[in-house]
Amino acid sequence: MTLLRVAHLKASYGASQALFDVSLDLSAGEVVALMGRNGMGKSTTIKCICRMMPSEGQLVFSGHDLHQLPSHRVARLGIGLVPEGRRCFTNLSVAENLLAAARPGDWTQRNIEDLFPRLGERFDQQAASLSGGEQQMLAIGRALMTNPRLLILDEATEGLAPLIRSEIWEAIRRLKEQSDMAILLIDKSLYELSQIADRAVILERGATVWSDQISSLTPEISERFLGV
Asked: What pLDDT, on a 0 to 100 scale, did the predictor assign at position 228?
């Protein structure tokens, strides 16, 4: 059953149109990679889904028309966002960051510690004192504490050391294997995406230009839409 449906999505920044015709869908337990070169509309699509900017077109989550809801209501429906750039509450401790987002459900501090043992060792530390990779883990943990049905990860591994990147990819793999949560991924790491995503959606100039099983993403298609 389709959990999120986006169809013919359009959006603008003032007089500048950014999205012209974006369509994608996700089902429970499915991992979809949202791909495309820089500036093609990926993050704008995420902003529209989370109701951080106005848009037109079909935008339905679990039977609810998201266009009718403010962003905090969308979050309460079960959409968890890990935004680009981490954005932790740096003046709060790790534990306080997690508690600030907590909603009833399976995800608790204990489960976050199991997923990211580094955070368990630093529950009492201020988020500002964490490394960049640890802050990214905290941002993911904070989103999971909302107990979402859909987790959106916007460039979750960008700029991180290889070891930290590996830990985060392993955590995403565990989320896929151990839950029925849908995951929408934006990332430039084609190899890692190919190992975990079920399908891929490629955007070009604010429109969906390719959508299929990620195993069908040939080098020719990759070079045409993703190459520099």
From this structure: 58
